[in-house]
Amino acid sequence: DTAVSQTPKYLVTQxxxxxxxxxxxNLGHDTMYWYKQDSKKFLKIMFSYNNxxxxxxxxxxxxxxxxxxxxxxxxxxxxSLELGDSAxxxxxxxxxxxxxxxxxxxxxxxxxxx
Amino acid sequence: AQSVAQPEDQxxxxxxxxxxxxxxxxxxGNPYLFWYVQYPxxxxxxxxxxxxxxxxxxxxxxxxxxxxxxxxxxxLKKPSALVSDSALYFCAVRRNTGFQKLVFGTxxxxxxxx
Lengths: 114, 114
Description:
heterodimer; A: 7-stranded mixed sheet
């Protein structure tokens, strides 16, 4: 069983389109994240949710909107896609407490904007 | 704000030799420190962490790291490198209070030659 699963794995789309990436974790964790990894492999946090509440919201264009319907799911919707949005987007989850900081990552969703 | 520096883009080592991947950090207060590894086209995997206690922490696959508060460093080490250790390694830091974001370094590519 995959612990943190993201769909789709690959996404190729045109500028100006709207797209979504879905994430689900079956680890029972209470915190989920979206990270963006650019072409130079720099990894930057975008959002974090704890029990469906937004707790971290970095300086991200408001074209990006996360949604957490329950604590096992965190989706990312992107409006009006731009060339600079091309990247690999990673979902992750963690459990605060004894395992603080141990993030479990999905396999990534590679977004290419043409 | 917290930050991490990984001064080497790439580290080359021969199989069987010891390896060191360097990391220094900046954070107000006491840090939580982590190492993650990323294989090609995969998500990041947790290797080890320092939260408190013994400065030498041991992790997965024979890796260890030493927390040095005076030098604000957390270098990753392994006594004998394997070709299969070749990957991208990320150091990360967060503050030790409340919900804090995990900030990653820029990554160091480890290349172990046969």
